[in-house]
Structures are given as structure tokens and as C-alpha cells.
Amino acid sequence: MSDPAPSRRLDGSAVLGDALVRELLGARLIGVLATLDLIGSIHAVPMWYAVDEGCILLATGSRSRKVRNLRNDPRATLVVHDSRPGFEVCGASIAGQAAIVRGREARGLVDRVHGRYVAEGADEDAAVHEFFVSDDVALRLQPVTALTWDERGSPASTALRTRGEALPLVPTEPR
User: Fold this and answer.
1) For an engineered disulfide with 96, which of 6, 74, 134, 144 has Cβ 3.0 to 4.6 Å away?
2) Alpha-carbon dihedral of residues 14, 16, 19, 23, nearest 10 degrees?
3) Beta strand pairing call for 49-52 and 42-47
């Protein structure tokens, strides 16, 4: 029998020191940031990120719902995963405290996040520039704990990959 591998729990400095977490955060993926709103509902949104000095940076607008939520409750979770067809899935759910960074200090952090996802000079286009300047705060997520999963090497994943029986994921089309 080929049961899924159990999730692994990481705490403190072991979160960013973990090989799978480093692999995921080092890849150019999209994370999903979850915060709690005033009535306790989860607000989850896709986000760009960058790693910086023991924390995870995210760029956003000061008037965003996630910033309002974090002003009330600094707890946040970032899920980063690399999911492929079949059981070719791995990821990390990283929970911690998020600080809101404003002003001049935020600008360099925001630029660092943007720089991971777009080519240098992309902001010369007016529409791109306007989008970028709307990100006027940085979020600095300090990891406290994480759960990770990795099924890429499982017997079930190998079987689907070898026999070509994992159906491809179907992306949406840009609008």
C-alpha cells in the first residue's frame, strides 16, 4: 500500500533552514497569504514574495484588506506549493507574525519582491508603473512554524509518472 507521506512540522529557525522550504521559497512561485478579518473569516490572496534576513517579504497596498486584517491581528500564513499532474505535489504552509513596513524602508523591500517577478525596466511601461506604485507597504512575515509535504518521490507518484497516467493540469487563459 502507498499511503501519502505524513506532513512534517517545523518550528522556529528550522522553518527557513529546511531544504524543501528553501527550494520552494527560492523558486519563482506564487504564494497564498491568509489573514483573519474582523469577524474571524479567512482572507486568502495570491502574493509575490522574497526571502530577506530570516523572514519572508510580501508587497501590497496600504489600503488592502490584508493590511487592515494584519493591523488588527498580525498572525498570517503563507502557503507556497509546486503542484504538478498526479501526485507530483510539494509545499509548505508557513505560519507566523507579519509586521507592516511603511515609508522609505518599505520601498526597497517592495522593489526586492517586484524584482523577483518582472524584468528590469518593466516599470517603464505606464500601466506596469502604476500597478507597482500601488504597492506602498511591505509585509515582513516572521516564520514561527510550518507544515510541509512532498509526494514527488512516493511510489504512487512514480507509478503515474512512469506510465504517463497523470492527466495534465489545465491553466486558464490570460484575459
Assistant:
1) 144
2) 160
3) unpaired
By CB neighbour count within 10 A (0-12 exposed, 13-18 middle, 19+ buried), where does 56 fall? buried
* Residue range 123-175, pLDDT digits in tens: 888 888 888 888 899 999 999 999 999 999 899 888 888 999 988 888 888 87
Determine the Cα–Cα distance for residues 79 and 29; give it in Å rounded to an integer.
11
How many whole angstroms separate alpha carbon 37 and alpha carbon 54?
26
Specify whether domain 15-151 bears CATH 2.30.110.10: yes
Contacts for 117 with CB less than 8 Å, ≥ 6 apart: 28, 48
Q: State pTM to two decimals.
A: 0.92
* Exposure string for 16-54, b = 16+ CB within 10 A, e = fewer: bebebbeebbeeeeebebbbbeeeeeeeeeebbbbbeee
